[in-house]
Design a protein that fits this description.
213 residues; alpha/beta; PLipase/COase/thioEstase
Length: 213
């Protein structure tokens, strides 16, 4: 007989810069499969330190990338115990959001969520289930999953999709499916393509920063 239990856990996330009354933009950055927040967040450290605050949560599941030792990566979920995995990361991300922003007047802040690869489905479900304030959703080398794409929040939240022209993981067939899903949901995202692979490009991120003012 399968049973379940709810337990408190301690887990971490990473930030860059300070959240002050001079902060204009907050960026929640969700990593991809096999990455760690500690290193992922550094890819975005090209912002103005006084006006931008970066927050990188980390997937709750960790594993060795090769064999039984060495480098460690994290992921947001697998197909095993899928619904509980989703509920867990939505709770975790929402608590990070509340802890960081609870004492701040959100009216003058632009809250951006940028997710990469596997993090795109995570960010989409988080936004759909939590209804947090989000002024822009950026999905980089990923998509809104089928189970939430029809949610009203994606019709009211500015959406940007980013793809590398040489992305070895996003095949033409996958792109076709992504755009069919977006079109079926009657969404009208901004599309950015850059010459690159399955990776974060700092110059493209600088363009996003400029657009967010």
């Amino acid at each position: 007989m399968e049973k379940s239990i709810t337990i408190p856990i301690n887990t971490k996330y990473h930030t860059i810069n300070e959240l002050t009354d001079k902060t204009l933009q907050v960026w929640f950055l969700l990593h991809g499969y096999g990455q760690l927040a500690e290193f992922f967040i550094k890819k975005f450290d090209v912002v103005d330190r006084e006006t931008h605050y970066l927050i990188a949560p980390q997937g709750l599941n960790k594993f060795y990338l090769e064999g039984f030792g060495g480098r460690v990566g994290a992921n947001w979920m697998t197909k095993e115990d899928r619904l509980n995995e989703i509920a867990n990361y939505v709770t975790y991300l929402t608590q990070v959001y509340q802890k960081e922003l609870q004492s701040i007047d959100l009216q003058h802040l632009k809250i951006n969520i940028l997710a990469f690869s596997q993090g795109c489905a995570t960010a989409s479900r988080w936004l759909a289930y939590s209804k947090i304030k989000c002024d822009r959703l950026v999905l980089w080398a990923g998509e809104i999953p089928q189970d939430v794409v029809e949610d009203e929040v994606f019709k009211t939240t500015p959406l940007t999709l980013i793809f590398g022209t040489e992305d070895e993981l996003i095949t033409p067939e996958m792109k076709e499916t992504i755009f069919e899903r977006i079109n079926s949901a009657k969404l009208n995202p901004q599309i950015i393509r850059f010459k690159g692979k399955h990776e974060i490009d700092s110059e493209v991120f600088k363009t996003l920063i400029a657009q967010s003012y």
